Amino acid sequence: MDAAAALERLREISSQVRSAVIFERGGKIVASTIGDKERAKRVAQEAEALLGEAEQRGDRADDGEFAQLEVALQAGSVFVVRDGKRLIVATTPPEPTVGLVFYDLKSCLRELEPPAGPKTRAAPAARKPKPKPAARRKPSDAKP
Predict the structure, then answer these.
(1) Model pLDDT for residues 60-116, shown as the tens digit of each residue
(2) φ/ψ of residue 14, rounded to 5
(3) What is the residue-wise DSSP string for the chain?
(4) What digits encode the pLDDT tens for the residues 33-46?
């Protein structure tokens, strides 16, 4: 599914999402429900900065990358979800159903087509040797 269709589906299934932007690390916008491209880019950059700040303050024992983040404000919440190199940021009204919003955002990212990149040929599967036919018994081997 392409990113615009994935966002449209997200808007259909999640009544809590006000706006959403799908982007890649570095701020490349993949798709957005925000009509203004510059505003969508700023939202993506701010979401990435927010995620980076949270990762810096996080527990140093793990790899440091967050998979998801929610910031609750009085006016509403901001959600950031990562799935591989793609991220989605979404806004909601106050007091959303947090688990459901995270689920919907993760589902949206998983519905996307893989990012375009160099096409590589898959290595041919190793051929299994053919089984040898069972040895035939000689009539002299037969038991009376």
Answers:
(1) 556 667 889 999 999 999 999 998 889 999 999 999 999 999 999 999 999 986 655
(2) -120, 105
(3) --HHHHHHHHHHH-TT--EEEEEETTS-EEEES-S-HHHHHHHHHHHHHHHHHHHHHS-TTS----SEEEEEETTEEEEEEEETTEEEEEEE-SS--HHHHHHHHHHHHHTSPPPP----PPPPPPPPPPPPPPPPPPGGGS--
(4) 999 999 999 999 99
44's tokens? 């993506």
76-83 β-sheet, strand order: 29-32, 19-24, 86-92, 76-83, 68-73
